[in-house]
Amino acid sequence: MLTCYNADMQLIPAIDLLDNDVVRLERGDYDRVLFRQPIEEFVHRVVATRPSLIHVVDLQGARDGAVRLDVVERCVEAARETPLQISGGIRSLESAAAVLDAGAARIIVGTSLWQDDSSLAAYVDALGDQLVVALDVRDGRLAVRGWLAESPIGLDDALARCCATGVARLHVTAIERDGTMSGPDLALYERVCASGIPVVAAGGVRDSDLGSLEAIGCEAAVMGVGYLARLGLGDLI
Predict the structure, then answer these.
(1) Residues with a known catalytic role
(2) How far apart are CA 133 and CA 214, in angstroms?
(3) In this structure, which of 84, 102, 199, 207 has its CB flanked by the most CB atoms within 10 Å?
């Protein structure tokens, strides 16, 4: 088994977009919206906490399979100098380039990487360390298209492909924990860390979980619902 990547734990606040608002969903269910606030207002609140990076997911883009560049540009402008990693609806190298040109520091791609045997390598070759590969896991398999469909690719197969192609970073979400504040799936993240690729963990992460995630080798953790409490907005859920 390969040694996990070790680094100081980075906490990344999550901003999920639907229509023209920031939202939080429970377990990725578009019908279970826990929280809603206008984009610029929420981004300014997050920026005020001085994060080193903000995680932005356009849920509408992921569901519909199309990048909303106008929304990306709004987030970049609102974030001022804070770097953003952006995902949602990036289904081609052309759309990936457009999101980077709009100001994203790096992008997260999932669905389009598994459409054929050559897609992952093409993205890695074109984007290098600006590419973060999304592994969104439900019952041991990858979910795609905004978590509304299941990929035929299993987790172990995906990890093997990522190792073989030189993927720089993985963004791993335990879907059943997302938006629940029930704690992360440590067994899942330990399994993925064994690949030796840096791992960003997401799904159910609380402040009290950061030490455990760091101990098993995660590079960073994304916090959504938990971050609302840091912003004084937890009572709105």
Answers:
(1) 16, 136
(2) 20
(3) 199
